Amino acid sequence: MRRNRPWLFALFLLGYVLLSAGPAWNMVSRAKHGRDFATYHYAAAEVLDGQIVHTPMNKSRTLSSITGAEVWVKFENQQFTAAFKERGALNRLSKLTDDQKKRGVIAASAGNHSQGVAYHARRLGIPATIVMAKTTPFSKVEHTRSHGARVLLEGLIFDEAKSYAMEVCERDNLTFLHPFDDPDIIAGQGTIALEMLEANPELDTLVVPIGGGGLISGIAIAAKTLKPEIKIIGVEAAMYPCMHAALRGETPKTGGATIAEGIAVKEAGELTRQICAELVDDIVLVEEEHLERAITLYAEVEKTIAEGAGAAGLAALLAHPSRFQGRNVGLVLCGGNIDTRLLSSVLTRALVRENRLTSIRIIGDDRPGLLALVSKIIGDQGANIMEVAHNRIALDVPAKGAEFDILIETRDAQHTQEVIDALAQAGYPPRSL
């Protein structure tokens, strides 16, 4: 956190203090009384100063061209634990009493909050217990353990893990650190908006992933205090539209194995719901296909790793381009903790969608040299054979025939079609699988 912008801290603290007091606050009172709390917020800013990464925010010319918006990306995946959650975790840990620090803390998390708590708790000498859902990616579990925390796996989703964490908290007399529904957590996350608007005051739209709502609540308070006209757009995975439903007075229909497990929450926080109701302009939903494409684009275009939740902001621009066209958009790439196997699968599936990986089936005479001939035709077209499966006993193949399933790699859909045309002209018309 930079120290040469005290007026930024004062303005942000205004929202923080009124937030702590309850929902009966408004933007007029924030603007009127913000300077009164500069000293208190300076103390909170000092907690983060030099202990977290002041992550870069860069304009992406390629993503801007693809989406039609002026896209700026805040790379929170460059924090030490590869996620923004360090901010709120450290700010909350700093508020513990000496007795609470001695007894230890407990948290429930899909992964990133747990790593933030575990990492900074160890730095501060505070015992930490983390409860994670059994479906949490292996990499997040192991990283949390590597930071010295005791890790307990319970339930299939965050809400089940949280319920168990509360039981352990009471049993072991620990202090529970909520991942999002806590004023100190929210205040820590909101420092992201301060850095974004300091880097580019011309931003007119911030697109923020929503799980429980802590990140977007902090960002909304900070950004709306500094720039009341700015638009705050939330993003949720279509499988888990909890905040989207809550703000409409609906019961959310949630469930499914979303790639954005970091925002797969069944129920929004009470405090964050109040903040979002007043300060968030809209919430959009994104399907898995858009999340996968966003992860792929971050890897291919920005040469950086995004987990599903971290890519949700870009996914919103891909899914709803007309909403953001021509606007100066700030995206929060909030996390990069994705299992390498899953990342490999996402990138491979992207090649399939773009017809750069295609499986074709060829049926021909079962004679020596046929596979070599087919391979030569494919090679002459500049394509690469990745896999071959040779089947002689399929009943839909003539007794004197042979069936080949061939996985080929090409430049693009047009190149794939050129390979298919060449095979057909040679008397071996393929069928795409």
Number of helices: 19
Mean pLDDT: 87
* Major sheet strand order: 1-2-10-7-8-9
Helix content bin: 40-55%
How many strands? 14
Using only C-alpha atoms, the radius of gyration works out to 25 Å
- Beta-strand level of the residues, as a percent range? 15-25%
Instruction: Determine the structural class based on helices, strands and strand pairing.
Output: alpha/beta
Report the span from N to C terminus.
53 Å
Largest sheet: 6 strands, mixed
Q: Using the alpha-carbon principal axes, give the shape.
A: elongated
Which segments are poorly predicted (pLDDT under 50) over 5 or more consecutive residues?
6-14, 21-42
Question: What's the short story on this structure?
Answer:
The protein is 46% helix and 17% strand. The chain has 19 helices and 14 strands. Residues 6-14 and 21-42 have low confidence and may be disordered.
Q: Would you mind describing this structure in some detail?
A:
The protein has 433 residues and is of the alpha/beta class. It is 46% helix and 17% strand. It has 19 helices and 14 strands. α5 (86-93) packs across α10. The chain is elongated.
Task: Give the SSE map.
Elements: H1 6-21, H2 27-33, H3 38-48, E1 57-59, H4 61-67, E2 70-75, H5 86-93, H6 98-103, E3 105-108, H7 112-124, E4 128-132, H8 138-146, E5 150-153, H9 158-172, E6 175-176, H10 183-199, E7 205-209, H11 214-226, E8 231-237, H12 242-246, H13 270-279, E9 282-286, H14 288-301, H15 312-319, H16 321-324, E10 328-333, H17 340-353, E11 357-365, H18 370-380, E12 384-391, E13 401-409, H19 413-425, E14 431-432
Parallel strand pairs: 2-10, 3-4, 3-6, 4-5, 7-8, 7-10, 8-9
Antiparallel strand pairs: 1-2, 11-13, 11-14, 12-13
